[in-house]
Model the fold of this input.
Amino acid sequence: MAGTRKVPTSWKTGLQRMAPGVYAYIQAGGLNVSNAGLIVGDDEALVVDSLYVRPMTQAFQEAIRKATRKPVRKIVCTHHHADHTLGLTWFERDIPVIAHRHMRERMIETGLDLAHYRGVNPEYADELKRLKQRFPDVTYEGGMTLRLGKRVVELHHLGHAHSKGDTVVYLPEERVLFTGDICFHYVTPATFDAHVGGWIRVADKILKTFPVETIVPGHGPPGDKRALEKTLGYLRLVRREAKKRFEKGMPPKRAAREIPLGVYAEWMKPDRVEQAVMKLYNEFKGRGEQGISLHDARGG
Done:
């Protein structure tokens, strides 16, 4: 059951082996601190996401060089948010970036507000200047299969969940799934750009149809299917409690304050419940595609 174990306040970071030639790059900390991945094939390597600011990305690249001499020849982006994509700046331009079509569209629609990120991450203010978005070079619809020699890497777009252009990266032989931000583990999910109802459907579909043994979340430590079950538990809890208060005519901010989060109150950034309730109120009103501004979401 979700939430039956003590919630950790820290976890192992750095490059961690999930299967032969398959690695998670795990970070821990505050806002915009995300995870990435490395998949090594016969003659080349593939990177999943590129992190946020230069020190993070360069530490990841150093870890890659220690793990393999094979060149990185592909980058897959799980979604467009800056904590997963700004690091593309520090990868070679001739490495193609692959993502779902909606991810590229959302990058164009939302733009890049560096002043906002300097405000929420003042510790990285000097790194968040004069940057330009790097857009995907290759986009796909529905699904895409990549081959790194004998290693098969599947890309799946299952609908609007954490964002409209979410990609999960699945290795069927190894049963390893890189979820991007469809899974948050011991970190409260960010929902400002989500469709919470769609997210619940996507997470449920993954749990029912993918024979996964290892999950690499977008934030938090790696785990098994229980990591995604915990995320799903949070989303269901907040939707259920928000619906009760919506039907009573309660304002969303008050509703958020009253929702009993249980064990999820111990996860990092529990105040994100407010953006979840605001997003859900839009969905209850039939405006499910309407997002919450980063200002209203208190930074994301």
User: Anything to note?
Assistant: The mean pLDDT is 95. DSSP finds eight helices and twelve strands in the chain. The chain has one domain: 14-284. The two ends are 28 Å apart (CA to CA).
